[in-house]
Amino acid sequence: MKSLVVSLIVLAGFTAGATHAQERIKVGFMSPLTGPQAANGVDNRDGALLAIKELNAKGIKLKGKPVTFELDVNDDVADPKQGTQVAQMLADKKINFVLGPYNSGVAMPASRPFNDADVVVFTVASNPKVMEQGYANLFRIGASDNQLGGKMASYAAQDLKVKNVAIIDDRTAYGQGVAGEFAAQAKRLGVNVVATEFTTDKATDFSAVLTKIRGANPDAVFFGGYAPQGGLMLRQMRALGMKVPLLGGDGICSSETATLSQLTGDLNVYCTQGGSMLDRSDKGQKFAQLYRQEYKRDPLTYAAAFYDGMNLLASAIEATQSTDSKAIIDHVAKGKFSGVSGEYSYDDKHNLKSSAVTVFSFKGKDVVPIKSL
């Protein structure tokens, strides 16, 4: 395994003197913990760890024995090849459950070794193709690109009154997926796509692409990609005199976008994220407060989803009194679980039957929810 893959066993709330009387359940975790998307990966990890800390303090029992959950933390660097290696390693270690991957481009190849080893996977990867593979062990714990891209297009057309839009994607599975869904819904609503351009998830200079787009005079620019590129793109848009809104999916719904843009005030940026507004529910407010207390920072895009994913798994283990993969799959597929981000119930492809999507804007570095759709 390359040195970039960090395998760290984190045990929350474990008392060494009670090992003989406890059932230890290891849960794999994979997300980018280094590289440009590290902030999101750390956010995901900490959401899962917060849930584990609470679950271990609560004292769930399995066949009369107290359960102690452990998180096996791995860095996939947002790289498909690295992610597949991480997935195979977790499968070889006989770990039955995994939270992640974060990226659709990682989830697509990584899902095969997980499926071959009957590992139950809870992922936020949003590209519809992830679930269309038909793997019974795979569950989505976030909104799909259909929901994220489509609802951003609806908000742009109906609330922002956008008539002409330019679209850029970063050629990743996620970026292409969310941009494609945005474009399809925008066209259905009568919005003209006046330019379509491409970049990569490693790019830092977007001047050539933006100069082309500026000539098409769009009312807004949609970017299918992640915050490391989104923030730099926003800075370069403004430097070129492009004052129109920058739109995106959950990949740019992060304070990192604002930080990298080096701009202040109202950034004129809008993005969609799965789940309802945290501050609109008691569960959401409690989660955000606990997260701030634990980590001395605000949660980013998917901390709540990973927190929910861990609690969903624990609930299934407690209800079935089993760690057998097939028992857990059957329970989750047929059941309902109420989490911080909403209700988790699944269709036949293991997409969420209903996933609220919230539109966010930026006030300085703060990502502010403005409307749930």
Describe this structure in words.
This protein is of the alpha/beta class and 373 residues long. It has two domains: 8-143 and 280-341, Rossmann fold, CATH 3.40.50; 146-274 and 358-372, Rossmann fold (3-Layer(aba) Sandwich), CATH 3.40.50. The protein is 41% helix and 23% strand. The protein contains twelve helices and 16 strands. The protein has helices at 38-58, 80-92, 104-116, 128-132, 145-158, 173-188, 207-216, 227-239, 255-261, 282-295, 303-320, 325-334, and strands spanning 8-11, 23-31, 61-62, 65-75, 97-99, 120-123, 138-140, 164-169, 192-198, 220-224, 246-248, 266-274, 337-338, 343-344, 357-363, 366-372. Strands 1, 2, 3, 4, 5, 6 and 7 form a seven-stranded mixed β-sheet that branches. A seven-stranded mixed β-sheet has the order 9-8-10-11-12-15-16, with helices on both faces. A two-stranded antiparallel ribbon has the order 13-14. Helix 4 links the parallel strand 6 and strand 7. Helix 1 packs parallel to helix 11 (303-320), helix 5 packs across helix 6 and helix 11 packs across helix 12 (325-334). The N and C termini lie far apart (43 Å).
